[in-house]
Amino acid sequence: MARRAEEGPQPYGTDGWARELLDQLRPAGRDVHRLVAWLARAAGASVCLRDARGTLLAEAGERLSLDPSVVADVAAGRVSAAALDDGTRHARLVGIRRPGPDPAASAVLAVARRDPFDRHTTEILGHTVGVLELLLRERELVHADYRLRRATADLRLAILQLLMVEDTVSARRVAAGLWPGLLENDTARVYVIEGSAAERDRIADECGVATGGGALVVRCPAMDGHVIVLGPATEVEERLRSLVAGRPGTYLGGSPRQRLALTATAYGQAVTALAVARFRPERAAVYAERTRPARLMDPAALRAWSAAVLRPLDTLAHHVRAELLATTRLGLEFTAVSAAKVLGVSRNTVRARMDRVAALIGADFSALTVRAVAHVALNTEAAQGPYDPDGTAPPPPARFADLLGSAALRSWAEALLGRLDDDGRDLRGTLRAWLAADANAGPAADARGVHAQTVREHVRAAEPVLERRLLTGGTDLYEVVLAHLVTGELPVPVLGPANADQADAAVHR
């Protein structure tokens, strides 16, 4: 009778195992590994938990060697539980069912001990199986939610990448099923929010809540701390500004309204505005349409020249042409690595596309002045569309230099570079040498007879004076290059078949 009393179930008030088991369901204690370790202690056994495919989920105690056929029967649901006894060890296998009509188990729990299973241990095992079902179900739901969130994020990124290469038709088709009406407008603004990489997921979630599903929110694939928001509605900016105002250490840069086909251009403008936002008390800025050198050129002649430069690409299929030009615009604005991440392709693909464009238009993108001139041609077409008013080829000007001869453009260039003349360090001379060396500090230092670090410091000192980013490249750098072309301080390059034999030349570094 005494032995039977020992083997019988103990009241909850006398034995604390039930309370300990319930503690496993507390939010801070929901862990399969912790529960399996607890069961091993409570039952004085070795415990192993594997999923239906045999993958180990958790174990405690000695490694168990079980009959594979029995394990397979329990996993398949042919038997719900099994007991094994080899004379020295007693084992119980229990299938942990998943909800639904499928008889297969989602996991198999194996418990083995030297002593036979008494009623007390059996009761502990039975209740533990119930708790494991809850924990595994919760784990499955968490994983399913994660997969859903990941798939949704991938779809958002895919839509943005389609817009980046001007495939607005496909972007609308992808967005229509999940976010109807999101891209029904022909124009939108692009915003970039910068915060810490650790906070980016939370910032992205807050952007989604703030915009109420009315904007495309994408975690930037190129910059870990950036969140990209494409919003067709006018109130998106106000909500994002409020979000940034309430989060110290975050910054907002935005573009003006652009056609969806110019999403890549708008993205570059938002990144430029983001640099300005870092120096503003409200930590937000929108791209300012300041005087651009292209606006001071003869519009008709500029458009005709741009069309003539890009005419060799007109023999390509429309989608191929658009893809090549969009990739090249991003590759000229950012590094090949960053452009590749934004577009979702390899950097070799970006370089190959840029090489192809360079070969077709006769350009050597390793030369900074060539990149600056090509940047003008590409963005002219992006802003105004292909030149084909009457279905005939436009009459091109003789040279790009012809476009640089206006008095307004010369006044702009001299005023811009003249800002550097008051500095006693001759920032203007150092900048000119640095640009002539294709933005390479080493050769510029040799030409100036100074250390390379001095060149970098002078270029960095010129940035606030010119109010343009130089070391990071892109539009700001190309404008300063154009100013030097206008004043004659750098030679004007010629795009054309002269470089056609250099299709394998290096591209934007």
Descriptive account of the structure:
The chain contains 19 helices and eleven strands. The chain has about 500 residues and is of the alpha+beta class. The strands form two sheets. Strands 6, 7, 8, 9, 10 and 11 form a six-stranded mixed β-sheet that branches. α5 (about 120-165) runs antiparallel to α6 (about 170-180).
* SS-derived structural category: alpha+beta
Mean pLDDT: 84
Helix content: 40-55%
- What's the count of strands? 11
Helix tally? 19
Outline type: elongated
How far apart are the termini?
86 Å
**Main sheet, how many strands, which sense, barrel?**
6 strands, mixed
Give the DSSP E fraction (strand runs of 2 or more residues). 5-15%
SSE string, helix = H, strand = E?
Answer: HHHEEHEEEHHEHEEHEEHEHHHHHHHHHH
Based on CA atoms alone, the radius of gyration comes out at: 33 Å
List segments where confidence is low: pLDDT < 50 over at least 5 consecutive residues. Answer: 1-14, 498-509
Task: Supply the key terms.
about 500 residues; alpha+beta; 19 helices; 11 strands; about 50% helix; about 10% strand; elongated; disordered N terminus
